[in-house]
Specification:
heterodimer, A: about 1050 residues, alpha/beta, Rossmann fold, Carbamoyl Phosphate Synthetase, Chain A, domain 4, 9-stranded mixed β-sheet, 7-stranded antiparallel β-sheet, globular, B: about 350 residues, Glucose Oxidase, domain 1, 10-stranded mixed β-sheet, 7-stranded mixed beta barrel
Chain lengths: ~1050, ~350
Amino acid sequence: MPKREDINKILVLGSGPIIIGQAAEFDYSGTQACLSLKELGYQTVLINSNPATIMTDTDIADKVYIEPLTLQFVSQILRKELPDAILPTLGGQQGLNMAMELSEAGILDELGIELLGTKLDAIDQAEDRERFRALMNDLNEPVPDSGIATTVEEAVSFADQSGYPVIVRPAFTMGGTGGGIAQDEAELRKITANGLTLSPVTQVLIEQSIAGLKEIEFEVMRDSVDNAIVVCNMENFDPVGIHTGDSIVYAPVQTLTDREVQMLRDASLSIIRALKIEGGCNVQLALDPAQDRYYVIEVNPRVSRSSALASKATGYPIAKVAAKIAVGLTLDEILNPVTGTTLAEFEPALDYVVCKIPRWPFDKFVRADRRLGTQMKATGEVMAVGRNVEEATQKAIRSLDIDINYIGDEELADLNEADLVDGIIHARDDRIFYLYEAIKRGYSVDKLADLTKINVYYLDKLLHIYEIEQELIATPFNADVLELAKKNGFSDEVIGKMWKTNEKEVRAYREQVGLSPVYKMIDTCAGEFESQTPYYYSTYELENESTVSNRKSIVVLGSGPIRIGQGVEFDYATVHSIQAIRQMGYEAIVVNNNPETVSTDFSMSDKLYFEPLTVEDVMNVIDLERPEGVIVQFGGQTAINLAEPLAERGIKVFGTTVENVNRAEDRDEFNKLIQANGIRQPQGRTATTTSGAIEAAESIGYPVLVRPSYVLGGRAMEIVHAKEELENYMKNAVKVSHNHPVLVDQYLVGKECEVDVISDGENVVIPGIMEHIERSGVHSGDSMTVYPAQTLSQKVQDEIVKVSIKLAQSLECIGLMNIQFVVHNDEAYVIEVNPRASRTVPIMSKVTDLPMARLATRAILGESLVNQGLKPGLHPAGEIIHVKAPVFSFTKLDNVDSLLGPEMKSTGEVMGSDRTMAKALYKAFEGAKMHMPDHGKVLITVKDEDKGEAIDFARRFWELGYQLVATKGTAQTLAAHGLKVETVGKMTEENNIVDRIHDHRIQMVINTISDSTTSAADGIKIRSTALTYGVPLFTALDTVDAILQVLESQAFTTLHL
Amino acid sequence: MKRYLILEDGTTYEGKAIGANRESIGELVFNTGMSGYQESITDQSYNGQILMFTYPLIGNYGVNRDDLESVKSSCFGVVVHEVARRASNWQMNMSFEEFLVYQDLPGISGVDTRAITRHIREHGAMKAALVNEISDAKFEEFHAINLIQNQIEISSTHSPYPNPANGRKVVVIDFGLKYSILRELARRDCNVMVLPYDATAKEVLACNPDGVMFTNGPGDPESMNESVLEMIRTVEAAVPVFGICMGHQLFALANGAKTTKMKFGHRGFNHPVRNLATGRIDLTSQNHGYAVERASIANTDLEITHEEINDETVEGLRHKQYKAFSVQFHPDAAPGPHDADYLFDDFMEMIDEAKQTQEDK
């Protein structure tokens, strides 16, 4: 069927802010969809509240709205735009939920708007557990015994019949939020209560546990004439019981006979056909490892994280094809863009192995519960490709960009036996390292298989790696062993360790014996057809397929997996840099390892190398490609960390020189620079011992800000008010040494603000000054931010501009640089300089209409800012006020304190823009799903320092008609100031706060009790209860002021005579 | 132990010897399936060929008693990138390497199978040998030997045997049949009699069949004796017939069409085939190096029913007068998708209609 001519304008729903379970993969799918629809000649309108995405660039859709994805705002846009149709199936669960909401509200019928893609009823049938079960029964597809519960008692009575363990899955929640495996009734009660609250329909599925079976996924596609295909199948390393988003996954399946593959393929196709899916769909299955039996676990009736992975793993662009299917094209009418010669009605054949490993946030959330279960906890993932499992796995591990870059973790050597076994049985993010340690200690793979239900096939691969490790140790500088090791994914660095030498020596020897990697193409067809795709991975084989063109090329390093502090923003900057490079006529070559993102869409660049971001892997690409140089400043800390080693190897690093990057990052150097330029900064010292730190703190004066010298996104940074706290911090939070000193800084209370600058080495352009709403002490990534600045005096703004230009010039910045300030007593102090693109690049690019990464790339490649038509200095601000609000994923993680502080905790962001501050703030809060009821009870419980300010806030709430509730101390203060307040009991008392929140008798919680005070436990408990029950929670007083501004702007003043 | 794969054009690849310790010469072909190595190795259609798997990891799930497509493999060798060290599947009773030795099949591992695949894509399927050493003498010997031509004769059964059941009586002419065809017939309760490839029409019809099935098989269809084509012409006029793969090609030849050798064939199970009557597209399991020439259909009583959607290879034919049809692909799958297994149901319906017509007469 040709594309539909009866529709012209299509509105695409984005997925909103990045949260755990709904991340950058939807920027990739949404971008692909919009470009596909444009390519077919449709007018496209996009709504997404997330400004950090490529999809919200104005060249992706004809019209882009960065507005909250709520019924109110989407309806308003629908009435204004009057599209013919909406495409919701590429915007994740958020897109589907929005479509459901719009449909239920009647606006689609009212305006005659059609929903494209899979029909809502099919979506409901896939997601409503009861309807799904009924359908599976009709199809004769086995599903585990299960029941629906809408109360805890129903859940218990189901389990009484089915027996324990049982799995609890809340309906309509993302990333399996709120689910879990209950071993007994007590656990079941707890998990169910939580799950019921989190489920928007107050419904959970209680299911017979099939933990331990093989977990298999099929990515399938279907079109409107019932053609259906499997794009990719995947097998989880971890058996059923761990969310697939938290599992190590291999593609294609490894341990299934063809008979088993076809059995599951038949089931998947039968399901997609019965659901009448039009587009992509993910089917999860459990296969019994010991008999001819399987179960259908679940179906996602839309593109997903798995489909992004499948797209990158096979080369088959699922979202692009899904968008075309949605407008009526059939699979045999769509060209397979990879081969360029065959059709999309095709099942890719792989001739390599893909390994995906999730990236978890536990390096940030050191106290979080790291155990893995049915609730996804990872923020991102890496993918690696090899010609065998060992190679793909080892490449994936070193792509993770964590402290350990090898499966053999030396620190585990000291672990006692009980802890080792516990770490193996009760999987955490680090289980693979524990398994390897067990193999080292002589555990048999059969024993490990028995303990974990992980297939012995995979465990044997770990054993193989260990055996090669032993060979390497036994026979250093042996060419045969080296070749074996390289074919199995060992890095030069690890081999260097085994050979008691260094990476450089290994590389030299490797080159001497003529052993270098070749690059193979990912072509969807195992070499059967000639392909056009410039998409490669490295391996150690005979033939290299990547031919070097005679054009001048530039290598751009991506930012690796999404993690807290290094999110999709850096992918955005990377993509923009690629675009500028191509516009300038160079060939743009990308190296990256994140399967979720736009930068690893092979159609974005001239050449894509899917490789780990290590010196060795990047150097290999460079050795082959001989580019003009490398651009590192857009790929976050991951890429910038490679600048120095690459420069050492004689590679041209474009932009700010490595020396100058180091001057910005090295504290002493930086201090010298600051002092030489007469710039203000908080006093700071370094210490390498606890006593040194105390001495430093005392000379500066408490409170001080302490952090390790090696920082990524404010890790392990704390504000310390007294000696005991500092001692505690030094003991528990950091590993201090001479190589890794601790930084002790004066903590200045004040407004924070930041600028990004673009510099060509001569002139400096400052797109704008962003002002943080929360005062210093809250990490810039977690602050609400407003542009243009609202409260800064002209004097301070002038000073910021002057200092920024001076810093950019004295650091000889070429490209981008980010500078953070604190404004204390109307003076600007520099607190941090990041000599690279920052997380605010996308948002500032959008609000100022200065595509910063593109401009910077052009500057880096020699085109001056003036020639690019830019006026040096501060770019004038427009009339619209833009507010960025952070979005958190606390509900996905146990034992993470939600109190905001100097460590970054947010996973995503939204933007609200309007003509007044209050309206922009309102949109930002709505976009972040912080919806405030217009009346109700506000619970205030604040630390002593905050009590004075709390009085004023309480009074404002009272004026608006809210009632006040407080804990004893806060209540006394409020009452003393003439406010009517109800006192609630402590945790241990009757009618306590938790009960009240639980019973929905509190509508808003303000809590600033820090975790270093005596009532810490209460503070944490109050916050986590509020989050669990979806009650808006504020942990910073300035955010409270912001929400009050919104509420006041919406309310009338009631006066009495 | 080292082993070499040498190609007719002089290209040589060094790898590790696996399987039987002997040398072998055959036509080198590649298969793109990511699973199903056991079924492929025991598929008689690979008779005389050296089979290379493009998927790099072979043997992951071992070999089991159920997934055999014939008892004795007749391919001449296997080429793989890597053999699994430790296979794992509840059904396995033998490792891949044990199976090769058991089948007396030589193989080579540790070669860049993707490079070789690309070589064949470029230069076409060609004569190749697995040898344990390379020397000028070896090459001379290699070049002197002609590839075998009588694969069907070798692959086919030499005496009739039944697969009894209570349903329709189906005679299966064995050109090198895959057990999957018998399995599909058994699933439909057919009372089967398998006859050798050189059975005469008289012998076939003497079984008083309700329908006749022409199976897959190895080699060049045009090398088949005229007597076989004659048998087909007689049988198709008498009872419903269904041809698969070689059976399809011989059905075409018997009715006046021609076949040609393809550059490197279709071997794998992701080939999309369109049913021209319904528009339905199935992903099919395929293994053929020859194909029916499209142009040669014009002056025959045949019409094209199926085609591959990318290269438009003739994938299915129907006789305009008789209840007779054939497909180039394997609706019997094994390995590969089951999308097209409805064709066996079509055959059953055709048989029933013919019986009905017979009774009405």
